[in-house]
Recover the amino acids of this structure.
C-alpha cells in the first residue's frame, strides 16, 4: 500500500475518504474492461493532437478592425506559448492524458 505523504492535521488539509494512489492502481487492476475503455477514450480525445484555433474567421471580410485582429494575434501567441510550455518535462498531450486517466479511475482530474 502507498504511504500518504501529507500530514493532514498539521497542514489543515481534509483527508480524502480513500487512498487515491491505491484506488488508481486497483481500479484498473480488478476491472477487465476499464483500462481498455480509458485507453480508447484517451486515444479518441487526444489522438489527433492538441492545438489552438481562432474562435472566429480571422481573415474574413467582416473582420476589419485592426484592434480586433491585433487582440486575436496576441491571444493566439499566449495560447501557443501556454500549450508549448504547459509542462517542461512532457507535452500537453501527455499531461492531458494523465488528467483523463486520473479522472476516469479516481474521479479526480488534477
Amino acid at each position: 500500500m502507498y504511504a500518504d505523504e501529507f500530514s493532514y492535521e498539521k497542514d489543515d488539509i481534509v483527508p480524502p475518504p480513500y487512498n487515491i494512489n491505491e484506488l488508481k492502481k486497483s481500479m484498473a487492476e480488478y476491472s477487465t474492461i476499464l483500462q481498455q475503455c480509458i485507453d480508447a477514450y484517451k486515444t479518441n480525445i487526444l489522438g489527433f493532437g492538441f492545438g489552438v484555433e481562432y474562435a472566429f474567421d480571422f481573415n474574413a471580410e467582416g473582420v476589419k478592425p485592426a484592434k480586433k485582429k491585433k487582440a486575436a494575434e496576441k491571444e493566439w501567441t499566449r495560447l501557443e506559448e501556454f500549450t508549448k510550455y504547459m509542462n517542461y518535462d512532457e507535452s500537453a498531450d501527455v499531461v492531458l492524458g494523465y488528467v483523463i486517466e486520473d479522472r476516469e479511475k479516481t474521479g479526480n482530474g488534477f
About this structure: Residues 18-106 form one domain. The mean pLDDT is 81. The first helix runs from residue 8 to 11.
